[in-house]
Write a structure and sequence with these properties.
There is one protein chain. The protein contains four helices and four strands, in the order βαβαβαβα. With about 120 residues, it is an alpha/beta fold. Strand 3, helix 3 and strand 4 form a beta-alpha-beta unit.
């Protein structure tokens, strides 16, 4: 799970992709990116969505199918996530199914995880 904070740019997303997903110990894992705490989305170059999707697909572990959920809270986040998702899902190299959600519980369920509210007691 990755949680973005503050100002988010295409450069941030490219750096995340190239840093996190270059790690062999993360290869084949499913992923959740939570945009709840993003205060500013600076992504004017829409073509960068396809470029990032192509890079992401090229880095996928082709031996293991996995999922990538994007939890978007604003209309712009949702639209940019859908654009990225469409490009990535169409790339023949990807082994990671990508989907954008407006609800964290739905995103977690799709990933096969259980939603646990922050104020829930743990034992």
């Amino acid at each position: 799970m990755a949680r973005c904070h503050g100002r988010l740019t295409w450069q941030d997303m490219f750096e995340y992709q190239q840093t996190a997903w270059a790690r062999p110990d993360l290869s084949g894992y499913s992923e959740l990116v939570d945009l709840t705490d993003v205060t500013e989305l600076v992504m004017p170059e829409v073509g960068k969505a396809q470029e990032l999707a192509n890079l992401s697909a090229s880095m996928d572990n082709r031996k293991t199918a996995s999922r990538f959920a994007i939890f978007a809270v604003t209309e712009l986040q949702f639209a940019m996530g859908r654009l990225y998702s469409a490009w990535r899902n169409e790339d023949h190299r990807t082994s990671k199914q990508t989907q954008v959600f407006r609800s964290l519980p739905e995103a977690l369920e799709w990933l096969g995880l259980k939603f646990m509210p922050k104020d829930a007691e743990t034992s």
